[in-house]
C-alpha cells in the first residue's frame, strides 16, 4: 500500500476527486444490486436466491465484526445483540410506520424489492421502500448508539473486559425482547393500545414475523458493497492505522499519541452500525420471523467463527468465510453434492503441496525484504484442499451409514477450526486480503520459476506502488 | 525542563512509587537505574500519562502535566519509547514510523523526519517494507527509537533500550542515543544496564523499591563504592 503521505498528496491534487471518491462506491452498490435482483434472481430458483441473500447478510455481519475483532484486536462476543437491535428497531418502525402511513402493515413492493421479486407492473419505487430504507438506517443508528453505551465503559480499560460486557449485552437484549408484548395486528388493536407501547409490541418470545418483506438481493448486495468498500477504506485510512496499532500493541499505540479509547469505541460503534443494518435487512426477509434467539450467543458465535476462519484482520477473508460458513449447513444436507468435492479437493491438495515444495525453505533475505511469504498461498490452497476432501469423505461416510450431517454442523465447524489452527493458525488469509499482490507471487514463481532468484531482482519487483501490502 | 516531585503510583493496593522526585534539565541525558521492580518503568509511564499518579506532581516546561492525557503530551513534545520496544509487528517498518508521527499533521516535515530517522538508522532503510515483527531485536529497538523520534520530541523517554540485546548492538544503540542528544533532544533514560547508562548520561538517579536512593553526576555515581558493588558488579 502507498504511504500515508502519498495518499495525502493524492487528495490535495484533486478536489473533485473527493466527490467522485464518495460517490462511486454508491454507484457500484446500486449497479451490483440491480444486476443481482433483475438479472441474476429471475434465472435462479427460489432456494438459491434465499441462500445467496443469507450469504450477503452474513458477509455484512462478518465484515463488521472484523473491524472490532480483526482490526482493533478487541474481542466482542455479543455481535448478535446489535443484529437483533437493528432488526427489531427497523422492523417495528417499518411495520407500525406502514400502518400509520398506508393503513396496513403489508409491504408495498417496487421492482427492486422482495426476495422473489415484485408482482408485474410494480412501480420503480414506492413510499413503502422509502420507509424501509429509513427504518434500516434507524436500526443501524440505534445499534450504533447502544454500541457507544456498551463500548465506552468497557473499552476504557485494557484487556478482555469487552468480551465479558458484550456477552452480557447480548443476553440482556435477548431477555428484554422476550418481555415485549404481542404484535398488534390490526388498526383497531393499535388504536386501543397506549401510544408508547405500540412500537414495543414486537411479539416477545413468539417472534416478530409480520415485518413487511422488502428485503431483496438488491438491498442486500448494495449494502454488501457499501460495507466492503467502507471497511477497506477504513483499513487504509489513518483511523484504520490507529485501530491496527492498537491491535498490535496498545501501550505503544498510546505512547505514540493515539487516543486508544476513542478509536476503540469508534471501531466498535461502526461495527454495531453495520450489524444493525444487517439486522434490519434480516428482519425484512421473506420467511424470517425475528425472535429473541437472534440476539443469543449461538448467533454471535457463528459470526465469530466466520471472522476467525477468514483471518483476524482480513476483510476479504471474513467475507469468504461468511459465504462458506453460511452455505456449509446447506451442503451438509446434500451428501451427494458434497461427495463430489473430492474432484476439486484432490487437485487442490496436489497443487498446494507442489507449490510448497517449489517455494522451498524460506529465504530470509529475499522474502523478508520484499515483505512476502512464499508459503502463504500454498498453505491457503492446502487448507482449502484438506477441508474439501475432508468434507467429501465425511459425506461418503454419512451416506454409507445414513447420518444427517446437518445435525453435526457444530462438530464440523469445530473440526474445521482444528484443521485451520494446524495448517493456518492465522486464519485463511491472515491479515492479508485476496487482492494483495504479494499473496500471488508464489503463483508466478510456480509457473515461471527462476532458480536462484537474486535479491536484486526481487527487491526491484517489490518497489512498485502497492509493494509490501501485507498489512 | 522536567521536574517530578513526590510522585506516587499505586497498582491496586500495592504502592509502586513511594514519592520520588527528580529533575531533567534541557539538553541533558539523565538516567534512572535500578533493579527489577524498583519502579523505573512505572516512573516513565507516570510521566507520559500511561499510568495515573496517585499523588505528587509532574511539571514540564513550567506546566503541570500530572493529569494530562498521553496524546496531548505527545503534542507537547514528550515521546515515550516503551519497555520491550512495542513495535507494531504486523505493520511494515515504514508504517511503524508513520504511526510515530500520528499526532502531527505537517506532511512535508514528517517526510523529512522520516528521512532523518532512516539516515540515523541505515538498517531500517534497508528493511523499510519489511514487517516489523521480522526484524532482529536490535533492529526492533532501533525502530522503536526512530518511531519515537517521529513525534519530534523535545523530551525523549527511553525505557530499557538495551533489553535482550547483544553487547555490540547495545553499544551501537547507546552511540545513537548520544547522537540524538547532541542534536538537541533531552533524554530521560531508564536502564538496568547501569554500566552503559552511566557512561552516556550526564546525571543519574538510583531507584530502589520505589524510592530514590542516590543521585548525582553520572561519573561520580559510577565511581561510588555502593553503586559499583550493587549495580556494576565490581568490588
In short:
The complex is a heterodimer of chains A (471) and B (235). By secondary structure, chain A is mainly α. Chain A contains 20 helices and no strands.
Describe the model.
- The complex is a heterodimer of chains A (471) and B (235).
- With 471 residues, chain A is an all-alpha fold.
- Chain A has two domains: 22-296, no CATH class; 335-467, no CATH class.
- Chain A has helices spanning 4-13, 15-40, 46-72, 79-102, 127-155, 161-178, 187-192, 217-236, 238-248, 250-255, 260-283, 297-310, 315-332, 335-339, 341-359, 364-369, 376-401, 409-423, 441-447, 455-461.
- Chain A is globular.
- Residues 8-12 and 451-471 of chain A have low confidence and may be disordered.
- Chain B is α/β, with parallel strands linked by helices and 235 residues long.
- Helix content of chain B is 38%, strand content 27%.
- Chain B contains ten helices and ten strands.
- Chain B has helices spanning 40-47, 70-75, 93-100, 107-120, 122-126, 137-149, 167-182, 194-200, 218-223, 225-230, and strands at 2-11, 14-24, 29-34, 55-60, 63-64, 78-81, 155-159, 186-191, 203-208, 211-217.
- In chain B, the strands form two sheets. Chain B has a six-stranded mixed β-sheet with strand order 6-7-8-3-9-10, with helices on both faces. A four-stranded antiparallel β-sheet of chain B has the order 2-1-4-5, covered by helices on one side.
- In chain B, strand 9 (203-208) and strand 10 (211-217) form a beta hairpin.
- The longest helix of chain B has 16 residues, at 167-182.
- Chain B is globular and about 45 Å long.
- The N and C termini of chain B lie far apart (36 Å).
- The mean pLDDT of chain B is 92.
- The A-B interface holds A 3-5, 8-9, 238, 241-242, 244-245, 247-249, 251-259, 313, 368-371, 431, 462, 467-468, 470-471 and B 48, 50, 69-71, 73-75, 79-82, 85-92, 94-95, 98-100, 102-103, 107, 110-111, 126-127, 129-131, 134, 144, 147-148, 151.
